[in-house]
From TrEMBL:
<keyword id="KW-0808">Transferase</keyword>
<comment type="similarity">
    <text>Belongs to the GatB/GatE family. GatB subfamily.</text>
</comment>
<keyword id="KW-0436">Ligase</keyword>
<dbReference type="InterPro" id="IPR017958">
    <property type="entry name" value="Gln-tRNA_amidoTrfase_suB_CS"/>
</dbReference>
<dbReference type="GO" id="GO:0050567">
    <property type="term" value="F:glutaminyl-tRNA synthase (glutamine-hydrolyzing) activity"/>
</dbReference>
<comment type="function">
    <text>Allows the formation of correctly charged Asn-tRNA(Asn) or Gln-tRNA(Gln) through the transamidation of misacylated Asp-tRNA(Asn) or Glu-tRNA(Gln) in organisms which lack either or both of asparaginyl-tRNA or glutaminyl-tRNA synthetases. The reaction takes place in the presence of glutamine and ATP through an activated phospho-Asp-tRNA(Asn) or phospho-Glu-tRNA(Gln).</text>
</comment>
<keyword id="KW-0547">Nucleotide-binding</keyword>
<dbReference type="InterPro" id="IPR018027">
    <property type="entry name" value="Asn/Gln_amidotransferase"/>
</dbReference>
<keyword id="KW-0648">Protein biosynthesis</keyword>
<protein>
    <recommendedName>
        <fullName>Aspartyl/glutamyl-tRNA(Asn/Gln) amidotransferase subunit B</fullName>
        <ecNumber>6.3.5.-</ecNumber>
    </recommendedName>
</protein>
<dbReference type="GO" id="GO:0005524">
    <property type="term" value="F:ATP binding"/>
</dbReference>
<keyword id="KW-0067">ATP-binding</keyword>
<dbReference type="GO" id="GO:0016740">
    <property type="term" value="F:transferase activity"/>
</dbReference>
<comment type="subunit">
    <text>Heterotrimer of A, B and C subunits.</text>
</comment>
<dbReference type="Pfam" id="PF02934">
    <property type="entry name" value="GatB_N"/>
</dbReference>
<feature type="domain" description="Asn/Gln amidotransferase">
    <location>
        <begin position="328"/>
        <end position="475"/>
    </location>
</feature>
<dbReference type="InterPro" id="IPR003789">
    <property type="entry name" value="Asn/Gln_tRNA_amidoTrase-B-like"/>
</dbReference>
Length: 477
């Protein structure tokens, strides 16, 4: 039997406000436990929540970025359940009437295909506190600092068909929230958490299979692995005669498996009802205009422009629009060097590799965009070959100056004097008569040996094209 995977994601992203969604308490990460939750966040008797306009502004920016309709009227509801990190017994969230309606985002797959993924809705809600299990023995600590922190929960349509689709979509949402400045997206600090709903169905069947929901995944790599595991588990289960039950599961990264947390029968009935302390949220055109006036060029638009304007492949355009900083860096290199394709190769290749190796952020790169552009200019005008350029890049990375200074001080200028190259090749041919005979007897692979010798003799500086031409001519002789 052939199976098809169906995935829908729910993503909680923490909004970058200074204060909580319904109170003036601060949202800063890392404070001493239980120093940042006020009476409102704790829902003590007699308090009145007041909606933070900044949280609404950020949600509206997101809605606009995914071409969604902003609800003129939305409603906050109480989602009732008991948990030690939720002492007030309910979470304020939006249920039937969310602030952001249907929207869409585009993802680019490995082979460059563009696919549209629907967003069902995005709603505002408050976060709960946190249970601390690891720091203590024999008991659990509760830190309520996070209670009342504003979240935007972004729910997708079940439009994804593979773990790779899901990762591309999650990365896209992560990219958008950072581009438009509504969240820092910091996954270690829990500012971006993903729940994956996963089911399988026989290829060709229209009805969806029963889904399991994997909660609180906090890295893209784990998301991919968790879904992969879950798909295999469900297929094995069904093929072995069993049935998938609707349940919540947790991904254990150490064991690389998902485990059941609770089944639907044990699931909470939240008894949602409109929060009597909060008026419906009404948003008019002027508020939307204000909130979205300074939105930057968005990733999809930027990607399309990089494709059209700089002639990049969908894949490269997608990669280089990964963050605003990276896109800006690339555009400076492309403009100053006048060689967008070379610029794309160098930024996505050599530069990224060096940053990864040094575990540095782009902003800390010792090779700035103008410096890299200067290097590419010297490849373009034939001063150095692409191979020597890597050596120059390395020296620039070590802080030895710009491309011209490194080329000068290390004597790396390409040898293009054909007389000099001929002399050198004559010597090589004379010294390797055995290989010459082999070549002339039809063993063409030996040609590579001669190229290698010539590059070695010139310390990589001989113009490779000239070396090839002259070698061909002389070896035939
Ligand atoms: P709930 O109200 O229980 O959270 P929803 O209908 O809102 O359920 O769906 C939650 C998420 O699950 C959405 O992202 C949706 O796309 C996804 N989803 C729904 N049905 C399936 C399914 N059969 N397989 C995979 N994902 C699904
Ligand atoms: Mg849900």
């Amino acid at each position: 039997m052939q199976w098809e995977t169906v995935i829908g994601l729910e993503i909680h992203t923490q909004l970058a406000t200074k204060s909580k969604i319904f109170s003036g308490a601060p949202t800063a990460f890392g404070a001493e436990p239980n120093t940042q939750a006020c009476a409102i966040d704790l829902g003590l008797p007699g308090v009145l929540p007041v909606l933070n306009a900044e949280a609404v502004r950020l949600a509206v920016r997101f809605g606009s970025a995914i071409q969604a309709e902003i609800a003129p009227r939305s409603v906050f509801a109480r989602k009732n359940y008991f948990y030690p990190d939720l002492p007030k017994g309910y979470q304020i969230s939006q249920y039937e009437l969310p602030v952001v309606g249907k929207g869409l985002v585009e993802i680019v797959l490995e082979d460059g295909t563009v696919k549209t993924i629907g967003v069902t809705r995005a709603h505002l809600e408050e976060d709960a506190g946190k249970s601390l299990h690891e720091e203590f023995q024999d008991f659990t600590g509760i830190d309520l600092n996070r209670a009342g922190t504003p979240l935007l929960e972004i729910v997708s349509e079940p439009d994804m068909r593979s773990p790779q689709d899901a990762v591309a979509y999650a990365k896209k949402i992560h990219q958008i929230v950072r581009y438009i400045g509504i969240s820092d997206g910091n996954m270690q600090e829990g500012s971006f958490r993903m729940d994956a709903n996963v089911s399988v169905r026989p290829v060709g069947q229209e009805a969806f299979g029963t889904r399991a929901e994997i909660k609180n995944v906090n890295s893209f790599r784990f998301l991919e692995k968790a879904i992969q595991f879950e798909v295999e588990r469900q297929i094995d289960l069904i093929e072995g005669g069993g049935t998938v039950v609707q349940e919540t599961r947790l991904y254990d990264a150490a064991k690389d498996e998902t485990r059941s947390m609770r089944t639907k029968e044990e699931a909470n009935d939240y008894r949602y009802f409109p929060d009597p302390d909060l008026l419906p949220l009404e948003i008019d055109a002027a508020f939307i205009k204000n909130a979205t006036a300074d939105l930057p060029e968005l990733p999809d638009a930027k990607r399309a422009r990089f494709h059209a304007e700089h002639g990049l492949s969908e894949y490269d355009a997608n990669l280089l629009t990964g963050s605003r900083e990276l896109a800006d860096y690339f555009e400076v290199v492309a403009k100053e060097s006048g060689e967008p394709k070379l610029a794309a190769n160098w930024v996505s290749g050599e530069l990224m590799a060096a940053l990864n190796k040094a575990e540095k952020e782009l902003a800390e790169s010792p090779v700035s965009a103008p410096l890299l552009a200067g290097l590419i200019k010297r490849i373009k005008d034939g001063t150095i070959s692409g191979k020597i350029a890597k050596q120059v890049f390395e020296a620039m990375w070590q802080g030895e100056g710009d491309a011209d200074q490194v080329i000068e001080s290390q004597g790396l200028k390409q040898i293009t004097d054909s007389g000099a190259i001929e002399t050198m090749i004559d010597e090589i041919i004379a010294a390797n008569s055995g290989q010459v005979e082999q070549y002339r007897a039809g063993k063409e692979k030996v040609f590579g040996f001669f190229v290698g010798q010539a590059m070695k003799a010139s310390k990589g500086k001989a113009n490779p094209q000239q070396v090839n031409e002259i070698l061909k001519r002389k070896l035939q002789g």
